[in-house]
Amino acid sequence: MNALCSCGVARPPPPSGARSKPSVTATPTTTAAAATTTEEVEKLQKGIAELYDESSGVWEEIWGDHMHHGFYDPNYNNKKDKDDPLSLLSDHRSAQIRMIEETLRFAAVPEDPMKTPKNVVDVGCGIGGSSRYIARKYEAQCQGITLSPVQAQRANALAAAQGLADKVSFQVADALNQPFPDGQFDLVWSMESGEHMPHKAKFVNELARVAAPGGTIIIVTWCHRDLSPSEESLRPEEKALLQKICDAYYLPAWCSAADYVKILESLSLQDIKTADWSENVAPFWPAVIRSALTWKGITSLLRSGWKTIRGALVMPLMIRGYKMGLIKFAIITCRKPEHVVTTTTSECV
What we know:
The chain is α/β, with parallel strands linked by helices and about 350 residues long. The protein contains eleven helices and seven strands. It has helices at about 40-65, 85-105, 130-140, 150-160, 200-210, 235-250, 255-265, 280, 285-290, 295-305, 305-325; strands at about 120-125, 140-145, 170, 185-190, 210-225, 270-275, 325-335. A seven-stranded mixed beta sheet has the order 3-2-1-4-5-7-6, sandwiched between helices. α1 runs antiparallel to α10, α6 runs antiparallel to α11 (about 305-325) and α9 (about 285-290) runs antiparallel to α11 (about 305-325). The chain starts with about 35 loop residues before the first helix and ends in a 14-residue tail after the last strand.
């Protein structure tokens, strides 16, 4: 069966002896109803922007620059001092930095100063923590995009305060229609933004479009589990759990890491690698819940608004999804060919 199980992506085999780029159509059907019209996409994006306008200040106050999972050793939960408040904050902020480093290492981003990325785009940049870190590490120029005006403004303010205004900049823009020319960036970075994209194929197409020939593309994202060959969709109870999470976090339909890989393959991208880091991020959500239940966390949540509170209330469902093997934390990386073969594709939906 050629059809992709969850995102409805079909990839027919290329003709014998030929390299073709099959048409890619993403029609997610597994969980939340897919946003299929312009009006539905605009409504979704408005909700995402408002969620992060409202909540970013809360999480910056508690967690600092980085609004993504941390990367932990599998035996982290056996640490004796993991519940100590000072140890908690130090460990988890360090784990967020480690997430960036492990991601760059997995993608085999060069450390040689002559080969490091010089132009980077951060797609779904939050308040710019990854961009500022990468700009410092590689002496690179970084541009970040987000749907949230509050995040873009704060990211630019932090860049200026940290002496990086000449290296990093941030703007409000749509990841599905990026304001950049073709082939501009030698590193395309998407840290936990793919889950918000209503059209996964169009999202990946844009990442590939703005990547320079030979450039590296990195997608780190929540996925649902891969389906077995005998399955056509997730089980009803799995769909119900994901739907509750979708409603709170303004997520469209989920897909699997295998779905992403097939989209990347359809675009003739090279050196495709993927890994399941669910075990390495498992301590993160319990830590977020503990931080939210402190006096500082509770008062910040109450000041922030209903969207942020609703997101906090759904956190235990994320833990349940991870524990039952439904929710996966995936990294998918690839490289754009040095010499791109021009082919015709049908428009992604």
